[in-house]
Amino acid sequence: MTETAPALTPPPPADGPDGRFANDDLLPVPPERRSWKTYHFAALWIGMAINVPTWTLAAGLIALGMDWVQAVLTIAVANVIVLAPMLLTGHVGPKYGIPFPVLARASFGVLGANVPALLRGLAACAWFGIQTWVGGQSIWFLAGRLFGAGSWWNEAGEIGGRAWTLWLCFVLFFLIEVGIILRGMDTLRRFESWAAPVMIVGAVLLLVWIAGEAGGFGPLLDQPSALGWGGDFWEVFFPALMGMIGFWSTLSLNIPDFTRFGSGQRAQVWGQSLGLPTTMAAFALLSVLVTSGSQAVYGEPVWDPAELAARMDNELGVVFALFVILLATLTTNIAANLVSPAYDLSNVAPRRINFRAGALIAAGVGMLMFPWELYENPDIYIFTWLGTVGGLLGTVSGILIADYWLLRATRLEVADLYRASGRYWYRGGWNWRALVAFGAGGVLAVGGSYSGPYPEDGLIPFLQPLADYGWAVGLGVSFVVHALLMRLIPARAAEG
């Protein structure tokens, strides 16, 4: 995809030393190419929010003792809260047409921006690998149902302890994802636009089917809360709320990667507001209703939609249900986990890595992280790595929001974002104030996090009370520290 700078914005230098910090994919999207409307942003969020992990969110909350009302309420409130940083950081997209790594240059420095960019990119690479593995399993399972239980497909020999047909499906799903993203963001916009209504129809049809089988939705909806609405509930509510916020906290950083294609602020504000909290709450409610019906039919709640679909007697219904699950995984993985690292890696070496090359590298890194092992060892992945990264990303959000809204009042000198001699160069390309804020917020956010599945495994024991609020703590602390340091020790134009 080829992009040039907007006519009203001085273009960054394309030759000499400054050429190290720009390529066609990192330059601002010109106004004539900012074509995404309200529907496109809403469809983007519908495509990303409708997936298997979202479906099972309510299950986790009910397992904690909540009833269905409390679970859906918690999810809805969390997504209204996380919508705020989405809209705040997303504002820069329609206004300046720049992606997340370039926005980060204003606060971290032209070179320092690689710290938050690579942090966000690595998290996305790991998620990309895991979702690709899940998508490959869906294809393998679907083909197995079509060929039959005793077929050569299901009796295939093993490679590395797994059927070679499963590895084949894994590679196939990987190639489908890469093929879509290599065609550019316009292809992604069109794909998300038609996929969104298909997934909504599929989820509703699953509800209609289970309702017909169950004759109603009594068992789970009638189950009282084990927590009540008193102190026990609030003790669970706030940590659970942070977990639900953390579900999409990564996108609150790199949402400019999408809003830079927006036709205006109205499109991104209304599109995200209509797409994110409403879809998450409605999908959580839908999952509770369907699971309630499964309990009435099978005598136990079946929270995994793939497992539930497999119990259908109608082969056509199984195929359609699993197709929708596959589509949901595909739309979520490409938009949420491949676009971001593509830009992030391009930001590291703009002369050598464009968007397409960044996407290929990110996809390869995701595969090299052995996602099948991460998927089967959730303690290591969730408690040790993802929890830490999630807390650190909250600190980055605080710095970006403080810098763009409080300190700069949304005014940026776009040309200087691509220069080695402009106002965002700071000292040698690094803004130490942002790094200090990042360190302070990061320590408080993740210092008390568990390094294993048990509370006694906390990294810094006396910070454990903050561990369940890591995202909020990191965002708040980094916001305040960055704003204070920038006010008390202003950066000079010739700092380094």
Automatic annotation (TrEMBL):
Membrane topology: Multi-pass membrane protein
InterPro entries attached to this UniProt entry: NCS1 (IPR012681), Pur-cyt_permease (IPR001248), Uracil/uridine/allantoin_perm (IPR045225)
Keyword flag Transferase: no
Region (Disordered): 1-24
Main localization of the protein described in the UniProt heading: membrane
Compartment(s) of residence: Membrane
Family to which the UniProt record says this protein belongs: Belongs to the purine-cytosine permease (2.A.39) family.
Organism: Streptomyces litchfieldiae
PANTHER family xrefs: NCS1 FAMILY PURINE/PYRIMIDINE TRANSPORTER, PURINE-URACIL PERMEASE NCS1
Regions crossing the membrane: 42-64, 71-90, 96-115, 122-143, 163-182, 194-212, 232-253, 274-298, 318-343, 355-374, 380-407, 428-449, 469-489
Protein name per the record: NCS1 family nucleobase:cation symporter-1
Top-rank taxon: Bacteria
Keywords on record: Membrane, Transmembrane, Transmembrane helix
